[in-house]
Amino acid sequence: MKDIARNSKRSPLRKKEGVVRATFSLPGSALTDIEAIRKKLALDGYILNKSEVVRVGLAALDTLSERHIKKAIGDIERLKAGRPHSKEH
User: Fold this and answer.
1) For residue 46, what are the β-bridge partners?
2) Which of 38, 44, 39 is nearest to 56 (CA)?
3) Which whole-number Å values give the CA distances from 3 to 38, 59, 72, in the listed order?
4) pLDDT digits (tens, 9 = 90+) for 51-87
5) What does the alpha-carbon distance between residue 53 and residue 78 come to, in Å, rounded to a whole number?
6) Could you tell me which residues come within 8 angstroms of residue 35 by beta carbon, excluding any fewer than 6 positions away?
7) Counting beta carbons within 10 angstroms of the beta carbon of residue 4, is it exposed (0 to 12), middle (13 to 18) or buried (19 or more)?
8) What are 12-33's pLDDT values in tens digits?
9) CA-CA distance, 34 to 40, in Å (whole number)?
10) What's the sign of the alpha-carbon dihedral 66, 68, 70, 76?
11) Concatenated DSSP letters for 26-86?
């Protein structure tokens, strides 16, 4: 299997960065997209978890021009921040 989770920019002498848990909301279609990307990459021998797929997306986003970023922002569905209200009966 190919291991692409390693950051080639990281110096071997640099201290390992800590992991921080984050909670955020995604539409169900985004989770479906992440799973489809994971399966497609797995066929090529790249086994990634959901977090790694998101981090690859962030790295790719960082390489885009401002024009392309603005177009991508316009293409996504805006979601309300926070947890949905629970219904009381």
Assistant:
1) 2
2) 38
3) 14, 16, 28
4) 999 999 999 999 999 999 999 999 988 888 777 777 7
5) 21
6) none
7) middle
8) 676 788 999 988 888 889 999 9
9) 10
10) negative
11) --HHHHHHHHHHHHHHHHTTB---HHHHHHHHHHHHHTS-HHHHHHHHHHSPP--SSPPPP
CA distance 53 to 37: 8
Q: Which residues of 45-84 are buried (b: 16+ CB within 10 A; e: fewer)?
A: ebebeeeebbebeeeeeeeeeeeeeeeeeeeeeeeeeeee
Residue 56: what pLDDT?
96
Cα-flanking dihedrals φ and ψ of residue 46, to 5°?
-100, 110
Note the pLDDT of residue 79.
84
Give the global pTM. 0.69
- Find out whether 85 and 69 touch, Cβ atoms under 8 Å: no
